[in-house]
Design a protein that fits this description.
Layout: E1 2-7, E2 15-16, E3 24-25, E4 27-28, H1 38-50, E5 58-69, E6 84-94
Parallel strand pairs: 1-6
Antiparallel strand pairs: 1-4, 2-3, 5-6
Length: 107
């Protein structure tokens, strides 16, 4: 799951991954269980990674899925033999920039 968080003037939140210098990304995450709806996953991951309550903002499901290869160094997090991930895309519009801590936050 991917959530691109942006302002109305298209400033986009990017977070540098902890332990991976110069690797920046939007909010990402995985479903907690197969029963967890994707929208609930998006709300949970936004809260965990930014502290923002996505249910208070314009959270849009783009109806797009990206399939990509999982970096070899991260495959141990997945079941044996899993080499690709399916990422469902959301966006979340904010009325303006939040405090600076959300602009550059390591995850």
């Amino acid at each position: 799951m991917l959530v691109v968080i942006h302002t109305s003037d298209l400033q986009v939140l990017m977070m540098e991954r902890a332990g991976w210098k110069d690797f920046w990304q939007s909010v990402t995450g995985s479903v907690a269980s197969e029963a967890e709806p994707l929208r609930d996953t998006a709300v949970r991951e936004v809260r965990e990674e930014t502290g923002l309550d996505a249910s208070r903002y314009d959270l849009q499901d783009w109806g797009i899925e990206n399939r990509f290869e999982i970096f070899a160094k991260h495959r141990s997090r997945y079941a044996p033999g899993v080499t690709h991930n399916l990422e469902h895309v959301f966006s979340m519009a904010l009325p303006g920039r939040r405090p600076s801590r959300w602009i550059r936050r390591s995850i």
